[in-house]
Amino acid sequence: MTSQLHLPTSRRAILHAGGAALLGMSVPSILRAAEAAKPASNLKVRAKQVIFLFQWGGPSHVDMFDRKPNAPEGIRGPLQSIASSCPEMPVCHQLPETAKRMHLVTQIRTVTHKMKNHNSAGYYALSGQAPPSDDQRLRDSLDLFPAYGSVVDKLAPNTNGMPTFVSYPHVISDGSITPGQHASFLGKAHDPLFFGEDPSSPGFKLPELSLPDGLAIDRLHRRRAMQQLVDRQAKLLDHSAEARGFDQYYERAINMLTSDKVRQAFDLSAEPEAVRDRYGRTNYGQSCLLARRLVEAGVKFTTVYFSNSIGGRSTESGGWDTHGFDNTRMYPIVEKYHFPITEMTLPTLLDELEERGLLDETLVVWMGEFGRTPKINDNASRDHWPQCYTVLLAGGGVKRGFVYGKSDASGMYPDEQPVRPEDLAATIYYLMGIDPASEIRDRNNRPLAIAGRPVLDVVA
């Protein structure tokens, strides 16, 4: 049986209590009921920071981490298994360095939902809230839920001079922009500090954190140049006319421009060349290195997107969506591109966090929007499969070398302990010391719970 948090009574219970007063219930009793309905505020903060590594496109759980060596050939695939540093976690033979770090990791092998389209599943993964429909045409709107980092910025914002929420280096989309990447109805004041520059490019810096030549800070408020600067930073979505909190966003942009601490955190040139090489001189590799620097500087929630596109054909770019288009098979793509990048980034990030004494207080989340079909298709590839897939958690108060949940013999469905995205979201918030029963209000002032029920069995 899954061990889960018993959440406080909902607001509806308060209304019931109010009705009970008409039946003779005293005012003190009503007040006690109202107090019981408030989310607890004394949760332990286990994860002071979160690095959310989003693997857009959907990596194959059965080819990587939930290995099925005894399954028929059409399910187990051509890749072999190797032992890892944790006996319960055999790993694909193409990931030997990752295998050596499994003793640092919790695997949740039974994340499950029903969204088979990228935009719907992506929104679900990035917000922890079910979309209104499983529709590839799902478009971003202020009626949809905000990103994790925006909720954190609303409920537990930073007070250390650093942004609470940073996301980069892509705005992800599949036909249209995928919802769940910004603050939505919470207002622009809670949007991430977003940039799209490539951290691996020579002389990487953020234009948003540099003043135009000849423009003094005391003139900044009076110049259209600042407005254009903020506009560039703000274009995660084209809804600025509707969004709330633009004045706060404007003020935050000025603070970022004048903060030495912020500029220093983004200065990758301060890193030794050998360290930069360890992560790999790729967009994603240097993005992961930057995430470590942001953790050290005190950024609370950092989201790194693997790719802007779902991928599918190229062996040199793109996300994990490897159907086998135009007779291009899945396995050359992942072996030549996805696996080598993963081998350089995930082990190095975990090593560096551990070496610097940061892993215990930093939660690393590695996940996509779904997994892949256990049954290999006619193009020697695997299709979308949200019914059962694997998510990796490390640090931030989770157990080390632990497997939660069990899939069936083919990795098709959860056999034990299914975990919904709402529950994964609740687990992240819980580890951050944010009560999953907390509510935020949408633009119609309706209270909405931020998450489901945390999976307490993964907590150390």
Structure description:
With 460 residues, this protein is an alpha/beta fold. The protein has two domains: 38 residues, no CATH class; 348 residues, Alkaline Phosphatase, subunit A (3-Layer(aba) Sandwich). An eight-stranded mixed beta sheet has the order 8-5-9-1-10-13-4-14, with helices on both faces. A hairpin with a 1-residue loop joins β6 and β7. The radius of gyration is 22 Å and the shape is globular. The chain starts with 10 loop residues before the first helix and ends in an 11-residue tail after the last strand. The N terminus is likely disordered.
- Low-confidence runs: 1-40, 237-244
Average predicted confidence as pLDDT: 86
Tally of contiguous helical segments? 15
Instruction: Assign the structural class, choosing from mainly alpha, mainly beta, alpha/beta, alpha+beta, or little secondary structure.
Output: alpha/beta
What is the CATH topology classification name of the largest domain?
Answer: Alkaline Phosphatase, subunit A
Number of strands: 18
Query: Based on the structure, what is the oligomeric state of the protein chains?
Result: single chain
Q: In CATH's first tier, which class of the largest domain applies?
A: Alpha Beta
Strand content: 5-15%
CATH homologous superfamily placement of the largest domain: Alkaline Phosphatase, subunit A
Shape: globular
Q: Can you summarize the main beta sheet?
A: 8 strands, mixed
- Determine the N-to-C terminus distance: 18 Å
CATH architecture of the largest domain: 3-Layer(aba) Sandwich
- Report strand order across the widest sheet: 8-5-9-1-10-13-4-14
Percent helix, as a range, is 25-40%
